[in-house]
Amino acid sequence: MNKQQKSALSMFRRVYDFLVKNLALLSTLPMFTKLLEALELLLKQIEVLGEQQEKDISGLTTQKENLRSDLIKKVVETVKRIKAYAVLNDKEALLQEVDYSETLLNRYTPNDLVNGCMVIYNAGQKNLSVLAEYGVTADTQTVLKSAIDAFKVGSEVPKEGTIEKKQTTDQLEKAIADTTAVLKKIDLLVDMLENTQPELFNEYYDTRPVVVRKGSMTVRGMASDSATGDKLKGVKFVFRQNGTVILEKMTADGGSFYVKSLNDGEYQVSVSRIDYVGQEVTLNIPGTGLIELKIALVKK
Asked: How far apart are CA 96 and CA 138, in angstroms?
């Protein structure tokens, strides 16, 4: 997902959580229950599609590279044996026919590699009766042909993976558009509460903005024990603006975390860990440079 889509998903989750929290007050609104169910299903769909979209096809690429390496290894071995026969028996034409070095094979495109390997395979087949004592047999030829076929099929897999990823991206865009449409219908229902439930109305619309983070490395957060100075892992930092959760981060083993991008402005940051006294601080992001947020927590 791109930044805009991730920000939209974050907003969808905030709205859904708010609606569930206030279900007792909102469930009496017409069609609200059906719209909430639709929102829940779409959120699950977006999350699944997002995970699927992010799948790296590098594993498929690695598989292709392994198949290529295995094929070249087998064909180079076959070339050595056919060349030995050709040189020792003055078969100049055959020698020229199978004159493929490992370096040349490694430079070939997938299609050229398959074609070159088939030349060598066919040369082996045509001279199979005289190559047996050099180690080129029907069995070794079968193994070589299997390696050629496996590489030929495997070299197409990453292309198929790219096509599937494009299809997933299209489905994700539609799911986000459908979710936006559902929220617009819920907006109409909540609008009816503006005068009778003003606090609920205002809090609902506080959750609706889509906040797109921008910029480069913005914040480095650090947490330590106030008495010992030891760095603390597992400390939760929650960034809010006007009561709306914008970002949550957790300190790692070194007691720190980084926020790669955050819109400039003022943030209320709550810092907590179950065995320490929590803190609330205000943080101003100027829009440029790296801000360090150092927190020393007191043990309970």
From this structure: 23
